[in-house]
Amino acid sequence: MTATTNPRLAVAWIGELDGYLQLLDQTRLPTEVVDLPCQTVEVVWEAIRKLSVRGAPAIGVAAAYGTVVGCQTAVNESREAFNCRFGEVVEYLAGSRPTAVNLFWALDRMKGVAASHPSLGSQDMLQRLLDEARLIETEDREMCAAIGRHGAPLLANCTGVLTHCNTGGLATAGDGTALAVIFAAAAANPELQVYADETRPLLQGARLTAWELLQRGVNTRLICDSMAGWVMKEGRVQAVIVGADRIAANGDSANKIGTYSLSVLAKAHGIPFYIAAPSSTFDFAIRSGAEIPIEQRSAEEITNAFGRRTAPENCPVYNPAFDVAPAENITGLVTEKGVISPVTEAEIRRVLGK
Ligand code: MRU
Q1: Ligand 1 mean position, distance from CA 77 (Å)
Q2: CB-based contacts of 100, cutoff 8 Å, min separation 6
Q3: CATH of the domain at 27
Q4: Which residues are catalytic?
């Protein structure tokens, strides 16, 4: 398969101050490649909630642009009225999803910009917010590239690697986190075989990761989540690498449901287990994974995910969207500043300079 170098952007700002946020609607992939223009903050909120845009860094970038979209309605009002609208918009967007800390990190950056320019007029303030959102996007793209560079050597001696959920260009403003590492490793070793978990219940691995890997010409094999242990037992993979939605100060890492099981399986098979994430995914305000809020999603995602009922009507369901891999199961955290190993609070603070 021929590699394409520039896949469609998951998140983009179209135009200038009166422009809008454009998302690649990930709920429609892989069968339809359709853009979702977001011209109101309600559409942005719904897009985050429904997973039209998903993946921790991409949610952060979308929320930053979402504040601009939301504040456009106050651009001709007094600065007091603008501030009031800004506060409402930020609070509203913060309620879209609870687990990925990048959402709150991005909103905090936007709040910082608003607070540090109290005397600007509304139009100039909106311009500063757009500039900050663009900076968040650019920085995320650069962090992805650095993560790829730092992580690729970890896979240098692998013939196979396993990944979970989607951590690529669709989940970030750049090449991704864990997938950036895989793309860089596959560029050095085109024989590298990537096993992608399909990632129940919403199939981010099958619908999104397999789509991205094939577009980039990477050797890809899709497996059901329940096959991961056997793939390890058969010696098909020498590393597991996934992303994260929030990493506590001690290194406990929340990621898509199924990640905890993979970390246990990797440990049982003596296989290194890596998490790749930018510094915007670290939450030093919480000491351990026990404090990470785990999003609970609707029963229909399990009983009726893609329009076809696959469980009895009214069947009770438990649907946590994330779990937490404990630090002791993680061989290394791949960040834009380097690889953190061993995964301890002291080593995290040292590498990230916190
Ligand atoms: O529910 P999702 O699809 O937003 O979950 C995404 C993940 O769990 C990703 O692995 C994580 O955000 C890392 S993205 C680089």
Answers
A1: 38
A2: 55, 56, 59, 60, 245, 246, 281
A3: 1.20.120.420
A4: 245
